[in-house]
Amino acid sequence: MASYLIRRILYMVPIIFGVMVITFVLFFVVQSPTAMAKRILGPKAKPEAIQNWLHNRGYDKPRFINTQPGATWWDSQFVHQMKALATFDLGYSDATGESIARMFRQGAIPSLLITVPSFIFGFLISLSAALFFVFVRDSRTDLFGVILCVAMMSIPIQVYVIFGQWLIAVKTSYLPAFGFYLSGASTIKFLVLPVILYTLADLGGEVRLYRTIFLEEIHQEYVKTAQAKGVSPARVLFVHVLKNGMISIITLVVASLPFLIIGSLVLENFFGIPGLGNLTVNAIRTSDFAVVRTTVYLGSLLYLVGLLLTDICYAAVDPRIRFQ
Amino acid sequence: MALRILYLTVACALLAGCSNNPHPPPFREKRADGTPWQASYRPFPDDPRSLDPQFSYDTLGHAVVSLVYEEMLEYHPLKTDPYELIPCLADGMPEPISGSDGTLAYRFRIKRGVYFHDDPCFSSGKGRELVAADMAYAFNRIADPKVECPVLSTLAEFVVGLQERNDEAKRTKSFDYSKPFPGIRVIDDHTFDILLLKPFPQLLYWMAMPFTAPVPREAVEYYDGRSHDGTIRQQFKFKPVGTGPFRLVEWKKGLSLRLIRNDNYTATRFPTEGWPAADAARYQAMAGKPIPFLDEVDFRIIRESIPAWLLFRQGYVEAAGLGKDVFDTAVSARQELTPEYQARGVWLYKDAEPSTFYFQFNMQNPVVGKNRKLRQAISAVYDVDLEIDIFMNGIYLNAQQLLPPGVYGYQADFKDPYRQHNVEQARQLLAEAGYPNGYDAKTGKQLQLTLDLTVDDAESRQLAEFEKEQIEKLGISVKVEENLWATQQDKMDRGNFQFTASGWNADYPDPENFFFLFYGKNIPPEGNNNSRYANPEFDRLFEKMRAMENSPERLDLIHRLNAILTEDCPMIPLYHPVAFHLSQPWAPRVVLNPLVSNGLKYTQIDVAMRKQKQVEWNRKPMWPLAGIAAFLAAAGMFAYRWSQRHG
Amino acid sequence: MSLLEVRNLRIQFVTEEGETQAVDDISFFVDSGETVALVGESGSGKSVTALSLSRLVPTPPARYQGGQILFEGKDVLQFSKRQLQDLRGGKIAYVFQEPSTSLNPVFRVRNQIAEAIHLHRRDVQDVRAEILNILDLVGIRDPIRAMEAYPHQLSGGMQQRVMIAMALACRPKLLVADEPTTALDVTIQAQILNLLRELRKKLGMAVLLITHNFAIVSNLADRVLVMYRGKIVEQGPTQEVLHHPKHPYTQALLACIPKIGSMERRLTTIDHEALARMS
Amino acid sequence: MNFPLWIQNLAIFLLAASMGSAFWFVARSPRWQRATRRFRNDKVGLLSACVISVYLFIGLLDSVQIPAGPHRDRTALDWMFHGIKRERTYSAPLASTSYSATRPQPLEGRHVLGTDVLGKDVLLQTLKACRTALIIGGLTSMIYIPLGTLFGVLAGYYRRWVDDVIQYIYSTLATIPSILLLIAIIMALGKGLPQISIALGVTAWVGLCRLIRGETMRQSQRAYVEAARALGQSHRQIICRHILPNVMHLVIINFILGFSGFVMTESILSYLGVGVPVGTPSWGQMIDSARMELAREPAVWWNLGASACALFFLVLALNLLGDALRRAFDPRGSSVSVSR
Amino acid sequence: MNTESNFSKNPKLLLEVRELCVHFPIRSGLLSSVQSVVKAVDGVSFEIAPGETLGLVGESGSGKTTVGRALIRLAPITSGDIFWKSDDITRLPESQFRSLRKEIQMIFQDPFGSLNPRLTIGSIVGEALEIHFPELNLKERKARVAELLNQVGLLPEHTRRYPHEFSGGQRQRIGIARALAVHPQLIICDEPVSALDVSVQAQIINLLQDLQEQMGLSYLFIGHDLGVVQHMSDRIMVMNEGKIVEAGDCKSIYQSPQHPYTQKLLAAVPTLA
User: Which ipTM score applies to this complex?
Assistant: First the structure.
């Protein structure tokens, strides 16, 4: 197992390198650092100031290979950028000059406060609903359920948010329409609405997915064996099928776990929750390339962590792999 | 099981969240003397980029900087016609001095007993008294290339020593703060002269801007963003230490900035004259009182306009701008409050801003730059009134000239002959320009222009579409190039555009601050003449006008400059913004001057009234809860019966 | 009274492609302690018949059109869900063709057998001992290891033994073995057949053996039922049917098997059209 | 686009005709007859197909150019709506005055779904947005389907280093969260329909490629591929004759479901400010504008209502059609024609 | 083993295989090295004379199918030599090997998987003709396809149908027609009847035998059912774990098996008592 994990991690190295190259190309080659300098120094900055800024940060070096006489060939933007990313030197925001590492640390908590409860509720509800639809499979209820799920999937998340905010926060004044601060239990009032909406927006797709997975299982031979043993239909579903289906589901779910930290782009912005999603949207709106770049990079790392977790989880829950 | 947990959590959450107040509790409930703690909540559109007074050059930054720092002079908060400068940190207005060798200077006296905020950066932890050396230090910072002061080049033209010190620092790659600043002659701890290279009447305005605010050297050196004894100190730009009425105590990025009253504040008091006669009673009560009245200012960062308005409706923020979406709700056709809002007791303010928005042509562009008739045609076809009507609730002023009202030289009755929305005239001009019906008379091809805009939200997108359609009425085709903010700036700087929408907000109410946008020596990279307009006649008149004190002769020069711009049409004036603002009944606004950004130091609120109104405006209907309960009960029943049947 | 008696059973499958008569009016019986083989080629309806005995054929697509399945005199088609659950596993147990997929991959062997015991034999005190006992009975040499194993850790033959153990765990009256050796290699196949033969002797239960292989039948069954296109075309004692088949289908079927050592160059084939014309 | 009218219209007509005939061919072809038969019994699928054809038809109408005076063309859809006047600004559905609590002004005409901020008829805008959605979906599909299919087949068929290289490329791309990659590419390339399509294509091919790779691996293990090899067919022939036709159904399903994904993504992109360019009607932008409009008092709901419904029904129909096709192609063959 | 003495090239032989080894490396992931090797075929030698049927029996996993696949390069050969009519074809480049595919053909076990479900019977059978007889025009090709179908007992109108419309036995006939299309001299029959019902099995076996008589074909007949294999074959090889454990003519193997594995195998086969 350990050697397997080490191999998996080694396998990620070239992929991380690839990601770094892509981010470099998108954010340094296509968008020049001069634009970043303008961003920080303001539209009224003088060319010397910009040159000065670029020089301080090494952005005036050649792109890939330094061919200037007297310089070592690796003294280039590319190499420096790679080094910075590889050592998690995330740099500073283009818009505010704040340390990005700090921004991310601060943003992670609110994001997790939204995503973790949504994830747990969403998971439990969609699992129950999927099992219910599988139990009544091939009936009208099932057909209705599938269409309902697809319908829920077909509504963009903004519509959920606009409607939910209007109904709960504006029309009934139950909950704050906006805002967030961290202070123990009263933080909950800011979380309820976003959590409900986030759960709702993902529900259709998840129920449908889980239902498909369970249906796949219910056609397996072992189900026939269980029935022939005299196991009740409910027990077949909730013990035999559930445990087998959970293997696929858990591994799917685990892969998405690291992304919880990124939060929701749309929701956080609507509700003014200062999480990473909000940070990212704001960075996009203000073309703060440094932050967007870092989000891309960290997002990729999280994805890889997710893959790793999936592998570990697979081994943990599936005896066929555990005892290989 | 899962459902039960969910219901339980939702129930808990509803209990916990029975208040929809989105604010954290104030720092204190009561003042030391037992009177209510006055905490004011203000919507704030975004995080300021920097609170370094020598660097910050945007409205957001200034809104905070001007509460924390103060300058030698400030604008009278109540007088607008004309705008009037009054002493702030200075003890009386400065005296101009003409030196024997023809040099010019202004002598300032600093008030005694002005102290910086108490802060760990001072060795005793107590704020030190402000002295003349701090002004010299502030000017040294302006000259320091590392500070990247955006107005350095403008000031360097007039103030002795800025340019040399800047050049020297660039040469040696370090700035020597131990050397005295040559442009400031320190007479004693409370007296100094600012030495000028040439006549510069606008200096007084500059002395009312944050760039010239005194900064304690201790703070700049103390707050460096590095780690000391295991704790990381913030950067100076995020940890301001000044002499102003408030101290910044907390800044949560993306959430809030909280300021608390500076208890040692003595520099200014509430003005004793200048208010409108109609409101005398209210002002009389405050006249001459020590300020600030507020104990706490809580800027809540709300990036979206809708939530800001929602919070205002619910009584959770003290002020709101009236965006076009909600304008009709609150303001009637006669530009008065609607009955509903009158009943609420809300205050309405109409603020004419000293700004002008305009279309700007790139005069170096071969198509639009060399064809005056074409520019005039576009000017004539554009229906500014409709734009104001649709997008600005009909309240912005239709601009006929570059100068906004209130700035010296503004001609209230001036009409730009090419800016009267006359489609016939526009077609005529277009034909004369060589494009009858929008088609090139020589090649027969349709004329296509590119309009560069920064489009980042729904409103700017709708506006862009409107602008495109307006100009396309000429029969030409307009391609809107949507740029990111940085790209747009880049295009401006490199002159890589045909025409674009732009605006200028007065730094100070002097015509120089507008006409310099078209001064030939200010073509980028030197300055802000993004039109790249170069007219020797204009430049000559501008230089002359710039150095003059206000006089009929100067007025004449200003009118001539305006006439040149009107005829040449390097820009099409669109409108002067007028903003409608609302204040809650418990927080009437005091300041009447739109140039004043530290108005909160004059403001006070009625805490008891706020509490009462908040309850009144946030009643929660019971029927949805009952509905949810009924639904849950029905679902439970169904589940029970279902499990009975299928058990 | 026979242990099991099927009377005029008709089962139809309704699919998009149309309706097919999977089981067409068949009648047969199985007595206690008797081994009956149901022989037929693929598609003849033998598996459906086997599954239908405890109503394991899913409806839809299947439809019971008529007839009776009398188990100990009671009609299974009239059973309630609860009665059916008691019947399945408790009275009629199944062994299926493919042991690798028929065992639940995520449960240990112990749990899978224990589940059957819990369902039907509440009285058993020491479930673990009982499991060991049964595993020993089906000839698993190291029952303690096998008990804690997951199915994929066992070989095909062992898996099939576990399947049989699970079926036997509740001491059923009737064991339905649906092609129990088809998926196994020849050598393993022989072991499993031997095991079945021994178990029948030891436990005295009735066995309904479903197969397409006459060779297996000849070694194991007391009586043979031959199924062809949903009908039982011939039945009788094994030796009689094998050596003196009456129905032409049976005759042809027996003739077309290549026999080891036989020097016949051409094999007999079945003329299905002729058979169809006859019936 | 300054081609003469007739060329534009001819191109549109040819496109429509080729789509139609391709559809007819597929439906008639005995290769697909089992799927076709199953599909024909699937009421939900048929209904979705009808809904989608309506959208296609509207998109087509908005693509056909009709001359309207000198130097001025308009689309057939505009022509159908030419009786409907432009207003100054908002008006409610079927209202007779403009939408203003304080200064209502009489309207030029009636509008079934009201007008938007610039006074345009919301119904017309909603219908015109069909074309934008179809272009985004279509253009993206034209980019990502050949890319994903080709690479998927190559990786799955040749294995070894080809597979390693292709897997590396797509794992790297898949590693970057797709919405961020999308935004990054659009920020780098600039706004515009082609740019959005390229960005969507770059992110979308990965999924298809992975799917096709797996299926190709499965197919190439099947004996008929070996048989072809045994007969001496070249790799190219095997891919074209044997592999491609047998993975095509996955491509079709992926195309349908992907299409709905693109339409949804456009709305998110518009929200993030990197959507379609100014002047291009799109549902995403209408939904985005609705945030401010709903906060008006009284709220402007019809813009959101119309666009959200139009988007919803297209995406719903596409998803259901995709499901129906998956059922129809399902090799297991479901016996009951509802669900699965 | 009797092949050991036969190391010289015998010109009369059609096919001669010497010390054939097929090893599959087990490798996972991009960076990992070869973990271990599965010796699917490990030093197998045999020969087939014209018109002869060689049977190859073994349990699943014994490597018997891999031997067949290796002969026509569907499995990679690790070492050993294959001679076709005395020519060493082991290391022939693919372009030259293609002409050999005309002479050696294969019939597959799975009647469902071995036919492309998206092609008509006509094109499945015609495909082989297109490749190896490009000189035929469309009409001739059609005629030839009809002839082939006729030969395997199918009707000419079946050319336009798709595989799923046929029963297992008919599909196997199609597979045979496809193999026959190129006029092969050796057909590798990889368990051609093990997926079929007994009654159909008999028909296919008869068909194969008829074809052999008519066309003088050689077969390498692979199977696990001893009854079927011995019925078809002149000589038999028994394979276990990649190695030939015993070889000889049918009678001797059945009547006096030498190797214990063969004995075990024979004992396990159920017989009609």
Answer: 0.78
